[in-house]
Design goal:
The two termini are about 45 Å apart. The chain has helices at about 5-15, 25-30, 35-45, 75-80, 105-110, 125-135, 150-155, 170-185, 190-195, 210-220, 240-245, 270-280, 300-310, 320-325, 355-370, and strands spanning about 20, 50-55, 55-60, 85, 100, 120, 135-140, 160-165, 195, 205, 225-230, 235-240, 255-260, 265, 285, 295-300, 330, 335-340, 375-385, 395-405, 410-420, 420-435. With about 425 residues, the chain is an alpha+beta fold. The chain has 15 helices and 22 strands. The strands form 5 sheets. A 6-stranded antiparallel β-sheet has the order 17-18-20-21-22-19. About 35% of the residues lie in helices and about 25% in strands. The protein is flat and about 80 Å long. One of its GO terms (molecular function) is DNA binding. This is CBS domain-containing protein. InterPro entries: CBS_dom, CBS_dom_sf, Diverse_CBS-Domain, DRTGG, HotDog_dom_sf, Ser_kin/Pase_Hpr-like_N_sf, Thioestr_dom, Tscrpt_reg_HTH_GntR.
């Protein structure tokens, strides 16, 4: 039977898009305490079902699909710019297509403004009115208000009119940054993207006999299965080694490995792969916040996803991408790579940042190991012996030397030079995975 928390989440999920909810209303409707209602609403916000806006409340919004994650709702814009909603609250759940900066003549401004847009403009009341009539929402910069008839029009059209104390340039920068951050998130492969759902997962119950393992083994040709209780909560995992020479009538819970490592759907595949390599695990149960089985991922699924991700065009560049893009092969046999220190790679003092130095070491070691052995690798440990200041626009030479190479691991020594002087030294250990 579903818990009160799950019942509230289901209730919120069934609400129409744009519906406003409150802790008190949910508590009364579902017959629970306000504390229980509050926790469920926060969980719904984390899951993307609702958005909470200061001085407005909590609104049911449409959960965005991953391919549309770069689209923002007007509710999200309010939170990004610390805005105040002057009118049109009923339309906060809507998604905006693009934003238009109103720094031109009125007639020209309206040529660029259409339905689903967000016009960013100062205290130009006529522009506010014409934008709403064209089907666009309005964001007023500089902390200005607007006329009462414009607020009334916003309510009628269900198009938000928002005021923020920031100037136009700052607002555009803030919105661009929010979209850019979401683009980067879009490229990160999560466990929920590759999970084999529970409906297609073979699993055992704690009171099943060992004989049931042999049945599933014949049907699926797999040897590892999660073990759950009556509420589908994961209690253990059972493998061929666990059932070997065991009485086939014994309950599975007597032979299974208890308290197995599990992951959540929001866990990144890269993190899951590290766990699998580090712990020597072939299969991970995927669970929800209440430890209920949602499906499984295998090491093969993870490797396939990581290899696919490497072939995808990058939409939102991370610092790692900026660093590795600077790497180029050097003609000198002793120097493997050369890299220019760009402004993005420096700290507030204008010298090479510690984090970027780590990325340089990691990339150099990875390229060195791939030259010797095909396959994927997971960084196990990195030791940085020292790092000296390297100023902006400098060119560094990166030397990587293979210290040890085994079947399952590799050890690389990396030295970084600037104008012939050594400026950093580190050693990296990696786990190697055959494809």
């Amino acid at each position: 039977m579903a818990t009160k928390h799950e019942q509230i989440l289901e209730y919120i999920h069934r609400l129409p898009i744009g519906e406003k909810i409150s802790v008190r209303q949910i508590a009364k409707e579902m017959g629970v305490s306000e504390g229980t209602a509050y926790r469920a609403i926060k969980d719904a916000e984390n899951k993307g079902y609702v958005s909470t806006i200061e001085r407005v409340g909590t609104i049911r919004i449409e959960k965005k699909r991953k391919e549309n994650i770069e689209k923002l709702t007007y509710a999200e814009v309010v939170n990004i710019v610390d805005g105040q909603v002057l009118g049109g609250r009923e339309g906060l759940h809507k998604t905006l297509n693009r934003f238009v900066i109103g720094a031109m003549q009125l007639e020209a401004m309206m040529r660029y403004t259409g339905a689903g847009d967000l016009l960013i403009v100062g205290n130009r009341t006529k522009a506010h009115e014409l934008a709403l009539e064209a089907g666009a929402a309005v964001l007023i910069t500089g902390g200005f208000d607007t006329a009462d008839h414009v607020k009334k029009l916003a309510d009628e059209r269900q198009l938000p009119i928002i005021s923020t104390s920031y100037d136009t340039f700052t607002v555009a920068t803030m919105i661009n940054r929010a979209i850019y951050d979401q683009l980067i998130k879009k490229e990160i492969v999560l466990v929920e993207d590759i999970v084999t759902p529970v409906e297609k997962t073979a699993y055992l119950y704690t009171d099943d006999p060992v004989e049931r393992w042999y049945t599933l083994n014949r049907e699926t040709r797999h040897s590892r299965f999660p073990v759950v209780d009556g509420q589908l909560k994961v209690q253990g995992i059972v493998t061929a080694k666990d059932v070997l020479d065991m009485d086939r009538q014994l309950p599975i819970e007597k032979v299974m490995t208890k308290q197995p490592i599990t992951v959540n759907g929001k866990t990144s595949v890269a993190f899951a792969s590290h766990i699998m390599v580090w712990e020597g695990i072939e299969l991970l149960p995927v669970v929800d916040d209440h430890n209920r089985l949602q499906g499984i991922i295998s090491r093969q699924d993870v490797l396939k996803a990581l290899q696919m991700a490497q072939r995808q065009p990058q939409v939102g560049e991370t610092i790692d991408d900026l660093v590795t893009a600077q790497f180029r092969e050097s003609g000198d046999k002793e120097t493997l790579f050369r890299c220019t220190i760009t402004p993005q790679m420096t700290n507030y003092l204008g010298t090479l940042s510690y984090g970027v130095f780590t990325t340089i070491v990691t990339e150099a070691a990875a390229r060195m190991l791939r030259a010797y052995k095909r396959g994927d690798l997971v960084m196990e440990s990195i030791t940085i012996y020292f790092i000296k200041p390297v100023q902006i626009d400098s060119t560094v030479d990166v030397q990587a030397k293979l210290l040890e190479l085994g079947r399952k691991f590799g050890k690389v020594d990396v030295e970084v030079y600037n104008e012939g002087a050594i400026v950093g030294k580190a050693m990296m250990m990696c786990q190697l995975i055959d494809r």
